[in-house]
Amino acid sequence: KFKIGHYALADVVKMLIKEANIIYWAQSLLQLTYNFINYSITSTSEPLSFNIPQVHFVDAGIAFAFGPLPMSKAGSKSLASSARAVYLVEELISGRDDEFLKCIHNMDSNPLLNESDHWYDLALFFTFIQHVQYIRHHLTVL
User: Fold this and answer.
1) Which of 48, 64, 70, 117 is 20 to 30 Å from 14 by CA-CA measure?
2) Would you say 91 and 20 are in contact if contact means Cβ atoms under 8 Å apart?
């Protein structure tokens, strides 16, 4: 038989705060790339011969569910409450029924897709994003 276990609420809070911070940093790094692109576009007199994909990370936040504290043995009718659960709430991406598609691998600077694949240009853009972040952070892998 299987036994279902749960992390303590304090541990879940720590894990979800870490996850939320990762999403926050990912959004910042993506914005760094778009700032680099915009600067590069304004620094040239040549028109672009291609489209720049507009992507974003899902917005997310942490939600706490509160409930009343158990009555004390003295029978106090205090209105105090405490956190009972915590959740990572993420933006819903609607309108797409496609499955997740992995375009790049963290250990390789090349797209995982072939040039003939439909999403190849997007995969190439994601590799470009990695390169910009690598160069802008002085050859440090984040």
Assistant:
1) 70
2) no
Task: Specify the amino acid at residue 22.
Answer: I
Residues 62 and 89: beta-carbon distance below 8 Å: yes
| Structure-token pair, residue 77 | 């009718």
Q: Quick one: 119 exposed, middle or buried, by C-beta within 10 A (0-12, 13-18, 19+)?
A: middle
**pTM for this one?**
0.75
9 in Cβ contact with 83 (< 8 Å) = yes
The DSSP H or E segment spanning 21 is helix 9-42
**b/e per residue 37-67 (b: at least 16 CB within 10 A):** beeeeeeeeeeeeeeeeeeebeebeeeeeee
Task: Check pLDDT > 80 for residue 8.
Answer: yes
Asked if 86 contacts 6 with a C-beta cutoff of 8 angstroms, the reply is: no
* Residues belonging to the chain: 142
